Amino acid sequence: MASRAWSIATRLCHPTSTKVDGYGAMSTPIFQTATFAQPTATTFGEYDYSRSGNPTRTVLEEQMAALDGADRSFAFASGMAAISTLVRLVPSGGRIVTGDDIYGGTSRLLGKIAPRLGISVEHVDMCDLDNVRAALSRAGTKTDLVILETPTNPRLRITDLAGVAAAARACGAICAVDNSVMAPVLQLPLQHGADIVMTSATKFIAGHSDTTGGILSVRGKELVEQIAFIQNAEGSALGPFDCWLCLRGLKTMALRMERQQRNAWRLAEFLSRHPLVTRVNYPGLAAHPGHALHMAQAAGPGSIVSFETGSVDASKAIVEAANLFSVTVSFGSTNSLISLPCFMSHASIPADVRAARGLPDDLVRISAGIEDADDLIADLGAALDAASGGGAAHAAEAAEAALAAEELDKAALVARIKQLEGELAESRKTREN
């Protein structure tokens, strides 16, 4: 018996599970099977069909429930499959309140699919608790589900977890938190009053950009039963091999996230001093408007940084000039990633809606990996310098082109004047004759 509670890093390496391998394998076995033989023709064993349950998946779900402090966790084929299940909790004619700075896939689901199910959706500024309370208490409405992110993706805005959870509870709504940016290593929304926490297993849990998955960790017997039924009925569970990839990733998640966070912090500080950068979004910086709140409800600022340059061309040049940062969607990988969210992960949000929500097209998002921080800073610095030089060169080329066009216009005007003068002289000769 331990004399103290183990830290999360230790618990990630030493999970407890009801599924004990009889051979003592250090790695959880992969039960790569669709069906399981039954004791008799009229009795069922613990597992019968992998859509309904699989031992490898059970190990993952038990470990996630322990990490999140949940009554039960469920592993889905993707983060969006998990969020789609949240929407299934809302009846036709029901209502969802969510943030105005959310993942593009969630925005697409709530904007395009939820209305087909007869569900209305209202987007509010989740950073303003008065706005949230007003939306939840709006006359003539009843809210069934509140979905929030904190920090948000990609602008890394901070929401008061306990405040929103209390407001949702007061109006009888389920409170669900997308915790993908933090994972249970850095933030535990259920401890702050949320009913459900969703974590994209694609990101920090698996951690190597080699699988997709989503986890719902749930409090309360009624919600557990509803989600178990929906997952089995719709067949959205994560497969055994993908569960094993997540279990493998969990063992090093704390180690990876510690390094990734340290790298992100240094990148954010570097970016905040660069003349080409007009704004840096990172909750670890004291200048971030949500810094104090975030550090009070989370164990660290995480490894996602976003910044603005004021120019889409400059931002595009930075993204494309970086060598150690792969240009790709998603985050949480061992490799550093970079993207323009408005053209990639959030492209499904219409441009006018993005503008209304304050999501600028020049925003660059970085997911810091586990590389050497000095190498990342040097590479990003070179990309910024190239973009700065490129911007100057483009400006010079544009000025030269404008001057050349002006000279062409003058030459054309002189030629036209000469033509008119010639025609006038010819006309005079005709009249004199």
From TrEMBL:
Q: Name one GO cellular component term.
A: cytoplasm
User: GO:BP terms for this protein?
Assistant: 'de novo' L-methionine biosynthetic process; transsulfuration
What the entry lists under Gene3D superfamilies is as follows: Aspartate Aminotransferase, domain 1, Type I PLP-dependent aspartate aminotransferase-like (Major domain)
MF terms in GO: cysteine-S-conjugate beta-lyase activity; pyridoxal phosphate binding
* EC code(s) of this entry: 4.4.1.13
Asked if the Swiss-Prot or TrEMBL record annotates the protein with the keyword Amino-acid biosynthesis, the reply is yes
Stored Pfam families: Cys_Met_Meta_PP
Protein name (record): cysteine-S-conjugate beta-lyase
Look up and give the organism this protein is from: Diacronema lutheri
